[in-house]
Amino acid sequence: MARVVVDVMLKPEILDPQGQAVANALPRLGVSAVSSVRIGRRIEIEFDGEPDLDTAREIADKLLANPVIEDFSIRVDEPAGDTALESA
Amino acid sequence: MRIGVVTFPGSLDDGDAARAARIAGADAVRLWHGDPDLHGVDAVVLPGGFSYGDALRCGAIARFAPVMETIADAARGGLPVLGICNGFQILCEAHLLPGALTRNQHLHFRNRDQHLRVTSTSTAWTNGFTEGQEILIPVKNGEGCFVADERTLDELEAEGRIVARYTRGNPNGSQRDIAAITNAAGNVVGIMPHPEHAVEALTGPSLDGLGFFTSALRYLAGSAAGGQLTGGAQR
């Protein structure tokens, strides 16, 4: 399977009110040892042939992430669990 | 003068924006997201709503609509463009304006009449106001919190490109109470609240929104006469 996974996260300096709302709910689960929760987005891109990291990076850079507020990382998703990691 | 209003899949306020343009005295021309032709309009409004269902991020998909490629080129060439709410988000995504609009800090959708202070009257869309004028127009958004890095915010302040700020309460946590900004040339303006909903006594809290549309007409009349953009101080 020629799958590339893109993870998009808000930049560290950008407030994540959704993550805060989740963090604030944790005590109600009886969890108290969590200092912060941040929420991002995982996108799976399936290529017809070989996974194309360059194209995936272009897709991520132009569309999937907004560079003003978000960072992204991309990697080929290997079925055997052997992953090539790359950050942008 | 012909003011074009774009309809994207999911636009909500295109009808009101066209109506506001007509009330201001313009011919409103409906533009379609899939048609790159601007049909000879003299200015463009990108209306509020939820283009493409806000998929991915607000405005992220609309930015790549055929009509947006033409508008982006024309905007760089000086075409007056007003982005309202979702339109503001589209302008940021298209990099025609700096920064980004993010989820309201308190996570609630805000829908109320909002006081603003007009802080720049040297744009194509605000030249009919007076500097510091307080206006009242509706705000309604879930993702209206303007963010940018400190350097960009300082630049916007220094260059007088913050067009309006929230007063008597910031509805969404926007940095430096920013409600509207402009590009360096002053022809592209993005605003989060909705001037097109404040153009008639029957439905709006005031008629203050009309000033944005009449400003554009005044700007276009000045351009047609070969004049330069005039600020509110010269009214």
TrEMBL record, chain A:
Location in or out of the cell: Cytoplasm
Gene Ontology process terms (BP): 'de novo' IMP biosynthetic process
E.C. numbers: 6.3.5.3
Gene3D superfamilies: Phosphoribosylformylglycinamidine synthase subunit PurS
One Pfam family here: PurS
Keyword annotations: ATP-binding, Cytoplasm, Ligase, Nucleotide-binding, Purine biosynthesis
GO CC, alphabetical: cytoplasm
Assembly mode: Part of the FGAM synthase complex composed of 1 PurL, 1 PurQ and 2 PurS subunits.
Physiological role: Part of the phosphoribosylformylglycinamidine synthase complex involved in the purines biosynthetic pathway. Catalyzes the ATP-dependent conversion of formylglycinamide ribonucleotide (FGAR) and glutamine to yield formylglycinamidine ribonucleotide (FGAM) and glutamate. The FGAM synthase complex is composed of three subunits. PurQ produces an ammonia molecule by converting glutamine to glutamate. PurL transfers the ammonia molecule to FGAR to form FGAM in an ATP-dependent manner.
Family: Belongs to the PurS family.
Protein name: Phosphoribosylformylglycinamidine synthase subunit PurS
Organism, as annotated: Actinoplanes auranticolor
Native organism taxonomy: Bacteria, Bacillati, Actinomycetota, Actinomycetes, Micromonosporales
Chain's gene name: purS
Automatic annotation (TrEMBL), chain B:
Keyword Cytoplasm: yes
Keyword list, A-Z: ATP-binding, Cytoplasm, Glutamine amidotransferase, Hydrolase, Ligase, Nucleotide-binding, Purine biosynthesis
Keyword Membrane annotated: no
Catalytic activity: L-glutamine + H2O = L-glutamate + NH4(+); N(2)-formyl-N(1)-(5-phospho-beta-D-ribosyl)glycinamide + L-glutamine + ATP + H2O = 2-formamido-N(1)-(5-O-phospho-beta-D-ribosyl)acetamidine + L-glutamate + ADP + phosphate + H(+)
Catalytic center residues: C85, H194, E196
PROSITE patterns named among the record's database cross-references: GATASE_TYPE_1
EC number in record: 6.3.5.3, 3.5.1.2
A Pfam match: GATase_5
Location (main, coarse): cytoplasm
A single MF term (Gene Ontology): glutaminase activity
Recorded GO CC terms: cytoplasm
Cellular compartments annotated: Cytoplasm
GO biological process, one term: 'de novo' IMP biosynthetic process
Pathway note: Purine metabolism; IMP biosynthesis via de novo pathway; 5-amino-1-(5-phospho-D-ribosyl)imidazole from N(2)-formyl-N(1)-(5-phospho-D-ribosyl)glycinamide: step 1/2
Function of the molecule: Part of the phosphoribosylformylglycinamidine synthase complex involved in the purines biosynthetic pathway. Catalyzes the ATP-dependent conversion of formylglycinamide ribonucleotide (FGAR) and glutamine to yield formylglycinamidine ribonucleotide (FGAM) and glutamate. The FGAM synthase complex is composed of three subunits. PurQ produces an ammonia molecule by converting glutamine to glutamate. PurL transfers the ammonia molecule to FGAR to form FGAM in an ATP-dependent manner.
Subunit: Part of the FGAM synthase complex composed of 1 PurL, 1 PurQ and 2 PurS subunits.
Name of protein: Phosphoribosylformylglycinamidine synthase subunit PurQ
Native source species: Actinoplanes auranticolor
